[in-house]
């Protein structure tokens, strides 16, 4: 009996250490910082005075506590993009969806546990256009003693891609909303906060990536841009892709990646070329007749021992509309689907949904620049109206009148989505959610429309990863297209590009109770209303139920 007791005591002592990771505390002070880029200065919103912001490091199973103190004039929230937030929706961060914003002078502790995830993600503001400068990396290391399923790199480097406006970005979007038209595009792209030398500001330096000949490096690449998908390549070097959106993929080699806002890509690079300096380039991908910032951001891969005066080996960036280059990358992505990291694709479907994503035109008498109209965006022709009470609070406390649960599961009007647009380009508006039973399975086809212009829309789903089981051009045809779905090893992501003039099909299991935002990660489209939310009901018992809100949850 004594020996059994000793064993039980021993197990009780050991078990928490096995199950739980450590607690990691971070302090994020949101402050203004005067910053110079493109030979001109402006105050920007930052975390701890850094641009990009600090990298948040943790391991799988760790609990993370981030105290965010708001010391600027704007309301603030932070979203931990791609973190599952199992039962902890209060820490997800989108303003008026899971929380009221942190008001000036106030603070809030985001408290979440990283369960079953490892890899590269990002954090960013989720209110107004503050994420233009309020963003940074999340690096989740595997549990101690668990190796990567690929050769271990000599060193890891975070590479954050972004956009820079000479103007105040809040003024840019305010002016666009007033006019009813699209906002001014950015003035430059950035690599780790630096555009690199450009023609009208040749003196500014760029980011330098030092390497030693013969060593292997892992780049944790993040697109934190507001409105632009980007190509990324390094002169003379191949990239081996091993992970996207914090999920392992079957490794493949490429010289060019395409990465949408909100997406991440881990790439191995071997310093196997002649010693020297090699250009690193981030340039825009846009295969629609839509204006983008066409300035390429540059950095330098610098072999140790190379003299500063050595000329840099250049690379040719893909054409802006290089759909084939983008597709070559996207079509190469497959889940690792190993014994340790299986692809748990739902094989049966409880909810078969089709959402159109695209633009529209609504009347706006005050929009003189738009001739009395404004551009809007919608899903299933519903332009989402932001509430003034957070949806998660309204759900948890049964507050009526904040939202309705009648978001349509299919387009209210059927038309030739990618063909000639209908005569009426108006949308309806409302604060609507789509309700899901706990643990039900969802197949969602996201269908682009040609209204105004067909366009690639990177759609991000909060609270879940999903499997991209199929994609195609034109209108989705369930009878034909479903036969070609990949249900074995489709890539698992949290943000997916809906192809310009096409569709993408995703599947996920609704195993996370709460209210989960889904929206286009092109910030202008989110502003225009291309967003909705899924409400996932509690399951059985406390382990399948949303936790109660923390005591310091901000008030509206």
From TrEMBL:
Cofactor: Cu cation
EC numbers for this chain: 1.10.3.2
UniProt subcellular location: Secreted, Extracellular space, Apoplast
Chain ranges of the Plastocyanin-like domain: 30-143, 156-305, 407-539
Entries under InterPro entries matching the protein: Cu-oxidase-like_N (IPR011707), Cu-oxidase_2nd (IPR001117), Cu-oxidase_C (IPR011706), Cu-oxidase_fam (IPR045087), Cu_oxidase_CS (IPR033138), Cu_oxidase_Cu_BS (IPR002355), Cupredoxin (IPR008972), CuRO_1_LCC (IPR034288)
Key words, A-Z: Apoplast, Copper, Glycoprotein, Lignin degradation, Metal-binding, Oxidoreductase, Repeat, Secreted, Signal
Listed SUPFAM superfamilies: Cupredoxins
GO biological process: lignin catabolic process
Record's GO cellular component terms: apoplast
Record family assignment: Belongs to the multicopper oxidase family.
Protein name: Laccase
